[in-house]
């Protein structure tokens, strides 16, 4: 039973991620396989707490039989670019740091995160993407920032 607890915790983490869903914008094949090619995808995520900001994340996706079945482990690398895509509206005060999106990168143990950080001094939203592995972690990350338009102040909890 003690060995099952970390596995159950990992499953709970993957299932209980924030409710953002990726919209795949495009993908390119990188490694041909008869059973399904590896590819790099570009996905769009609208920030749930900030209307008018969208984050674009590119990441590698493993193909083949395992990729098709959803049991392949995707590489840890990801890149992020967040931009103002419309008028910015913040309905409620934001946490100084919030995990706004998570997605599984393997059957259980690896997760991609997008974290929003409020830089109140510079009135800027900073977005960080990184992947973690429950057992070892990962230092692979990417960062981008969206400065607020003049007259818009970020309310912080």
TrEMBL record:
Range of residues in the leader sequence: 1-22
GO CC field: cytosol
Any Pfam family hit: CreA
Q: Which UniProt keywords apply?
A: Signal
Protein's name according to its UniProt entry: Conserved uncharacterized protein CreA
